[in-house]
Fold this protein.
Amino acid sequence: MHIPDGYLGPQTYAILDVAIIPIWGIAASKVKKSLKTRQVPLMALGAAFSFVIMMFNVPVIGGSTGHAVGATLIAVLLGPWAAVISVSIALVVQALLFGDGGITAIGANCFNMAVVMPFVGYYTYRLIAGDGARLARKVAASGVASYLAIVAASIVAGVELGIQPLIAHTASGQPLYAPYPLTVAVPAMALEHLFFFGWVEAIVTMGVVAALGRQDSALLAMKPAARPLRWLWAGLGGLVLLTPIGVLAPGTAWGEWSAGEMGSRVGFVPEGMSKVGGLWSAAIPDYAPAFIKNPLVGYLVAAVVGSALIIALAWGVAAFLTRGAADDPAELTAV
Amino acid sequence: MTGEHDIAPARQARIRRPSLAHRTAWGIGRNIAEVLANEELAARQGFLQRIEPRVRLLAVLLFAVTASLLHSPWSLAAMLALAATLAAASQVRVRSFMRKVWGSAGIFVILLAAPAATRLVTPGRVLVSLGALSLTVPGVLGAVTLVLRVVAAAGIALLIVWTMRWNDLLSALSQLRLPDVIVATLAMAQKQIVSLMRTVEQIHLARESRTLSAGTTAENRDWVIGRMAFVVHKSVRTADEVYDAMLARGFDGTMRLLPRDRGRARDWFYLLAALTFCAAMMALDRGALR
Amino acid sequence: MTQPNGGSVDLSRAHAHAADFVLSGVCQQYRPGVPSLVDIDLTIGCGEHLVIAGANGSGKSTLLKLLDGLVFPSAGTLTAFGAPLTEAALEDPVFRREFRSRVGFVFQEADVQLFCSNAFDELAFGPLQLGLPPDEVRERVAEVAHSLRIEKLLDRAPYTLSGGEKKRVAIGSVLTMRPHVLLMDEPTNALDPRSQVWFLEVLDEWKRNGDSVIISTHDLTVAEEIADRMIVLDEGHRVVAEGTPDEVLSQRELLLKVNLIHEHAHRHAGSGRTHTHPHAHM
């Protein structure tokens, strides 16, 4: 999701360029304080790893590009602030030494991939892995966390691109920068990562975590949380409980119109929608399982089932990857 | 940006063209040869290479920002022309410059912008009537501007790429007072990147050779994962040793670099010239649109 | 390291009197239950050339790292130049600078040691970290590059160098700090025959300068050539022999037991007879 130069107007990139600088400063001081300088070679390694992973990118029409990043992996191993530095370095090197990704857009790219990703990934990981020692759980947690993190980052990138037509256009409506509105940019970026790059990111992350767990667990030993993360679980539970409120909001979310709604709103149905709209029959259409009549309960069930499915899937892959490894990583001794 | 340099005949012989095997759908963006070629180019005694890195960085930033502020296709084209001129002055052939810039960033943005020129995305006065895909005036203008801006920006970025070495970036950033931890990490990342890329290349090549034999997909996948695990493990071990080596030579957290390429007055004059040029472009741009 | 009266230890005075290193009852383990050194008593004098011999895994590298303050004993005491060498001691910037400039470490793998973007920076890194002014740094780099004949390599990135060139740059990167004690971990391992000869010549020259050299190796010819004194570590991580190279190398059973030499039936060219005698393959 590198955004090259020219796609973002100065109103957008300037804010992010300015905002990223204190973030770097804070990251540097946090790393120095809590991790000491031993992390420098490891951060360099993280930067290199992120750099190499990001080379494998594919253009995304309507957005920018799609690729895995590795930010969650680094955040899990070295902490989110160290990941800020590592991924930022990879991005800056790409932009200034290899011409990938924009120069004015460095702030935006770093914000998406070096700030949003590591933090979403890190805290999701802590939430799911907890303080438990079992490797399979850690691997699963890293998979879910990295998946969610990259999707979150892609959405933020999509928003940055999508607001360009809104905020920067001439009087005649000519868009000055990225021409696609939110309704196109956000789904384009999000879907590509939901369906493809998110999985790549998750698999890479889980693979490396499993590999490290099999051979050398020192890196995976996390410091216990300063505050218990139970509140995060409570938060997630609360969010799940609150999903039925959506039923109360009238109408349909902006951009999520079905073909029928599209027709009545705009007067015609874009050809693409009518062709593709019928292809996929969701298992739980409209978030309402057929046999549950009460829409509120239906929403709840859908939310729970959805979350459970994602976690279960990650667990399955994790179990597969760690088959044969010792359950308790502390038993692994590598001299 | 992928692809090989088409620079000068003498150089072509040395740069190994990435074989088809390398250009998999997901693309190995760069191979080692290109990295080394970058170093070679940056070592040439061209116009840009001789300017202090800090000034170069600031100037390029200035150009990039200016390009983002220009609205008229004409002024953007002028920026692109400037970039090409500077490239030529720095011993880079204009033809390869243009090919590189239009060939990757250019093609991609054209593909991206094309739908935006139509009525579907950008409504407005119709220019060319094609039914639902009619080209509208604001759509076409927007697309053309975007393409030119992106290509001009890519050209400017390329100027840095082909004249900046790792050390230059390092010294520029440390002189611009980036925190020590970041400079130290950047200093060390180059070595790690090269060694990782080499390993990825080897894994890729080895996997190709294995597909000739009758390995099952499960075996191949296990092998690749095993190789990756080994690489990760070894890299982490090496990182620990590298830290010991740094300690042994007195590293204590701060990164001290030799002040190199002390800026001459002439370099700052170039920066002033760049500033003037950009101001002129802005004025022209506003004028052209009026 | 501050003394009770508040002054810092002056290592230059200490150097003149005490031995370079004194280890007493030193044990070390990387992880609980996995010892790497057991009960080491050792005194290393000024200007001494010591070889630490042992099979792989006997703890040679760990001993060297101990001497360089990169790892610390889990039991026993270790002093360097008369002052205790502990983690706390090295946190004092004055002591750290003194210590690091006196003791240089050449790692087994040159790659580990070369982390800068070009050879010049490698050579300059140490002196710069010591806080020397830029002119002196440049002077030292030029001097060392000349004596190691690597002037042409200064502009090159380390990953473009051959194995032997990397080794020279690695050694150079330590020499620019002008250490009095050189620790070298298996220095001849990756060297081709010609480079090995060159290396032994370099060691000879250092001997003439009066610098201490402590080398870990399983290559017994190096021990023969350059050591004043030799110790042997066994696979139980203890010192099992100590003395001049002649004394130690004549103890055939011991060397066999610690896996430094082996016997197998072989034939010498031209003799037509098959026999066995202890030897090492170089």
